Every structure is written in C-alpha cells, then in structure tokens.
Amino acid sequence: MAQNVYDQENFFKEYIQLPRQVKGLDGAPEWSALKALIPDPKGSAFLDLGCGFGWVCRWARENGATTVQGVDVSDNMLSKARGFPPDAAITYTRADLETFEIPPNTYDIVFSSLTLHYLKNLPSLILQISKSLKAGGAFMCSVEHPIFTSPRNAKFVPDSEGQTIWPLDGYLKEGPRTTNWFADGVVKQHRTISTYVTLLLQARLQLSALDEWGPTPEQIKESPQWADELKRPPFLLLKGVKAM
Amino acid sequence: MAQNVYDQENFFKEYIQLPRQVKGLDGAPEWSALKALIPDPKGSAFLDLGCGFGWVCRWARENGATTVQGVDVSDNMLSKARGFPPDAAITYTRADLETFEIPPNTYDIVFSSLTLHYLKNLPSLILQISKSLKAGGAFMCSVEHPIFTSPRNAKFVPDSEGQTIWPLDGYLKEGPRTTNWFADGVVKQHRTISTYVTLLLQARLQLSALDEWGPTPEQIKESPQWADELKRPPFLLLKGVKAM
C-alpha cells in the first residue's frame, strides 16, 4: 500500500489551505503550462490519476470530455471531490496507484498531476498507462522536478557570497527521500529525468514535450518570493503520445 | 566567430594531457554509453561535429563507415587529426559551427561530443543537422549537463554537515557562463534539458534516448575520485532519429 499522507488529519488540515486547493486550478502556477499540453478534451474518455479534489476532472467535463474517471488513494480527497454538484459522466474511484489496474485501449487522455513521485512501482504503471491509451492518445504528467527531490536537505541555503543556492547532491542516486512537508516522514521517490523519459520511451510512448517549469516574469512580479524558483525548477512536465 | 580556446597555446598544452586525449576513446568514461547509442556505422555516411583529434572519425571508419567527415574550429586539433595515417575516406574540414552549412539529406549518422554547449546559434545548427540526415538517420550528442553548467561557482563546496554539495543556482536562467578551465574566460552556453529536447523535437527528430551519464560502480572502484559525479551528472547524452 502506498503511503497516504492525505488521510492523516494533521497533514490534510494544512494541505487544504494551499492556494491550489483553495483557488483550484488558478492557484496552481504551472497549470497553464500543463493545460497547454493537453489535447482538446471534447468527446474524449479522460483519466486522472491522483485526482485529488477533482479540479481537473471537472475542467475536462466543462471542456467537453464524454467520460471522466478520477482515481485517488485518499478518502479525504475523494469526499471533497464528490461534494461538488454531481455529474453522472464523472466517476471517482478510490484506489492505490501502486496496484491499480487500468483497462487497456480505453482512454484518449491520461493525466496525472504531482502524484507519480510518490510511487515505487512506476515502471509498471507507465506500461499500463500506455496500454490503456487508444492509438494517438496522449499522456501528460507533472512531477516534482528531480533537482527538487534529490537533496538530503531540500532547502535553499546561503553560499559564501550570501546568495541562496540549492544544495544538490545524490542526483544520480535514485530511491526514497523523506521530507517533512506538513507532516513528518512524507516519503517521495527520487528519479532522474533520464529515468522518467526512458520509462515513457520503453512503454512505446513518443516523447512530444518536456518542460522544466519555472514562473514567468509576470508571475514573479505578482509573487516576488517565486524568483528563487528560477534557481532550480520545482516541476517537470512530460507528454508522451501513443503511435497511431 | 565562435570562441576557439583550443588554438590558445596555454589552453591546448594542458588540454592534450587529459586522459581522453592521451588514451583516446578509452580515456573518455562516457564513451561506452555514447557508443551504445550509435547505430552500426557499417556502410554509413558519418559526420562528426567538433571532431577534435578525430578519434571518433577513425572509430567510425574502423567499424565500416563508407565516408567520414570531421569538422572542427581548431587548427591545433585538426593538425593532430591529420597526423594519423591518412585515410582517403576521412575528410577533415576546418569550420566554425556557428555558421557551418551542412548539405541536406546526406548523412546516416551525425555525431557531436562535448561541443554544442559552446555554441550560441544552436537552434539553427540542430535544424541543419536534421535536414542533413537521410530518412531513418540518427543524431547523437553529448553535452556538459545543464546541472553542471548552471552555477555561478561551478565547484563542489562543503555544506554545514561537512558533506560536499553542488551549489546549484540559475538553472532556468539560460545564457553564457564563464569558467576558468585551463584558460581564463572560457565561455559556455548554459541551456536547460528542456531546451535541448525541445530543439530536437522542433527539428522533427524523434527523441529515442536521454541519458544523464554518471560513472558505473566499476568505474568508481577504479577511480574513487569519481564518486562525487553521482551527486550531479557531468554529461547529458541525447539521441534523435529522423522519421522514415
């Protein structure tokens, strides 16, 4: 069973106050870059792995998806998702993505936001995602950037010139990283960009985009504290397409 | 004109003592990973951009390439390359890759080792490389890894726990980086992985490999000082294939 911090009440209480939970997609600074990678959902069968409160599921429906399935490991998250006005075309399923089985040749679009870096069994999930796509279908994901997940101490520190630096180490040493993010002992799986890309290619997905997301000049003007994100990217966005 | 440190005598005197120059390909720790990406050269027309002493040009001929062209900006390098027993099937050309024109639809294999991170005009060169490939042809390159080129001070430093860290900053700020490597004021162009990959995709090359090279356990046993390379990868290896 995957670790499920989202159902720890102390974690969840803090987590739901994040801008991306309060404001929805507009509170997620990388959303517009990620949205630009998603094909037009109109008429599609859409799957969201790690759907949380269902923001993207509802967005897909508002943009014409025919059926939408959201999957999440957290009861807390899914209760909130189901609290929005019901829509018979959206199905929410509680499942552990470490073992979830996805039906083959079913979806036009598979999406996953900031979820895959929690999973140990990612190679098997990526293979399943590829099989679950119809020919020409697309898979988009965001993960915490490997530069972000790599360090023993993942915090900016001052250098000898008084500038902040990101203390990179262990980039090529893949495996678990334990951080204290709202709760103690949150475990993420650190993987290199090379591993993410190779998993897609081995699953016969053609890489069609790789974005190391950072804030735009406009976003930094609005939220000056984001300037440091340019020193090391917080998110990695990938898109793979299944051959026709 | 591109900077040409290889024709500065003080630089060159030090540079030719590097293991990869003294021992050839076996002195380049990433060569076996890079070689694994190169299609069988037998019968191919082979182009090496930034050929240096011609080690890879001669390797391609020894492995059956029909014609080999090596291009380099440095007289020092090419004199040395031409000093090896001559081979009518290998042509060496002195040219600045910032402005070099490559004939279209000519090569089966285009190769470039540790050269492209010196070039300002990379988008145009990648487009030309793609056009110069025959259908099904392949482009392989190694560059200094963006994590390696990014920092203001590109040297390991101790952290507060006495461990060495790589002081990452400015990863998303692309542009020139000046280092003192055998000579003062060597200028490299820092680009993100995202930019390298996007340039290949925009040139209609299908990404077929992305390797963030680090030493193997065997290599670290032989050269223990390489263990720190696992903290931040020194090289990025890419392969793109032109659609049939």
How would you characterize this protein structure?
The structure is a homodimer of 244-residue chains. Chain A has 9 helices and 11 strands. Chain A has 244 residues and is an alpha/beta fold. Chain A has one domain (44-242): Rossmann fold, CATH 3.40.50. A 7-stranded mixed sheet of chain A has the order 3-2-1-4-5-11-10, with helices on both faces. In chain A, strands 6-7 form a two-stranded antiparallel sheet. In chain A, strands 8-9 form a two-stranded antiparallel sheet. In chain A, β2, α5 (75-82) and β3 (90-94) form a beta-alpha-beta unit. Chain A is globular, with a radius of gyration of 18 Å. The mean pLDDT of chain A is 94. β7 of chain A pairs antiparallel with β7 (164-168) of chain B. Chains A, B: GO terms for molecular function: S-adenosylmethionine-dependent methyltransferase activity. Chains A, B: It comes from Phialocephala subalpina. Chains A, B: Keywords: Methyltransferase, Transferase.
